Amino acid sequence: MSAEALPPLESGEFIAENSQDVKVVQAGVKKAADVIFESLRKGEFSVELWKGAGATDGHELNPKVMDEKAVDWIFLVDTLNFSFWSESEDKKYEVRHKGQTYTGYWSLCAAVNRAMEEGIPITNPGYYAGMTEKELAYLLRSDSEVEMPLLQERVNNLQEAGKVLKEKFDGSFVNCIKKCGGSAQKLLSLVVSNFSSYRDEAMYKDKTVAIYKRAQILIADIWSCFEGQGYGSFDDISSITMFADYRPHVHIR
C-alpha cells in the first residue's frame, strides 16, 4: 500500500466530504443497508451462495472445493476481473459453457473453466507468467462476434502476477495468505504493494486516495469461498469496504 495514500475507508470519507458534483444520499445508504440486512436475516443471501448453492446467475462457475486450487483460481480470475463493458447492449463478449451462455464477469469465469477442462494449466502462475497475447486470446475466445476487450492489458497483468508469485511467494497466492496471519488488512497491503495491477489510486484535491476495488474483491472472494475458515479466516474481514463499480450508474434529479 502506498505510504502516502489514504486507505479505502478514509478515502471514501474524504471524497464524500469534499465532493462538489456528486452527493451520497444518506437515506439511500440506510435503505440499502436495511435491504441487505433483511436478506441476510431471511437466509436469502449467504457465503454458501458463492459456491453456487441454488444459484442460477453464474455462481455455479465458482470453485466448489475449499482447497489451494480454489485460491489460485480466484487469484487468476480477479487479476483479469475488469472492463467487460460492451459498446452495444446487442453485441457482447459471450462464452458458452455446458449449455449456458455467459456475458460480463461470468463469461471470464466460463472461459477459464473451459480452458481447465481442455487441460490447460491456466491457473498456474508458472504458466501465465510467460503467456502471450495470442495465447490468452485463444483461451478467452468468444462465442460471439465480440472478443474480450483489453487483451494486452490482461496479458500484462498476468505476466507481472505470475512472475511476482514465482519470485517472491513460491509460485502460489496461498503463500501470500499465509504471510498475513489471518488479517485482511495485511493481505490487502501485501497485494497492492506487490502487484501493481491491483493498486488503483488517484489524486483527489491534492490527496492520494485508494480505491483498491479488485484487491478487496480478491479478499472477499477468498473469505466467501472458504466460508470464513482456513485460508478464508480473517479476524478483521469487516474492515473490507464495499466496492466501487467501474461502470457508472448515475441518477440525475
TrEMBL record:
One of its GO terms (biological process) is tRNA modification. The keyword Hydrolase applies. It comes from the Eukaryota. GO terms for molecular function: hydrolase activity. It holds the Pfam family Q_salvage. The keyword Lipid biosynthesis does not apply. It catalyses: queuosine 5'-phosphate + H2O = queuine + D-ribose 5-phosphate. Its EC number is 3.2.2.-. Keywords: Hydrolase. InterPro entries: Q_salvage. Belongs to the QNG1 protein family. Catalyzes the hydrolysis of queuosine 5'-phosphate, releasing the nucleobase queuine (q). Is required for salvage of queuine from exogenous queuosine (Q) that is imported and then converted to queuosine 5'-phosphate intracellularly. This is Queuosine 5'-phosphate N-glycosylase/hydrolase. It comes from Branchiostoma lanceolatum. The gene is C9orf64.
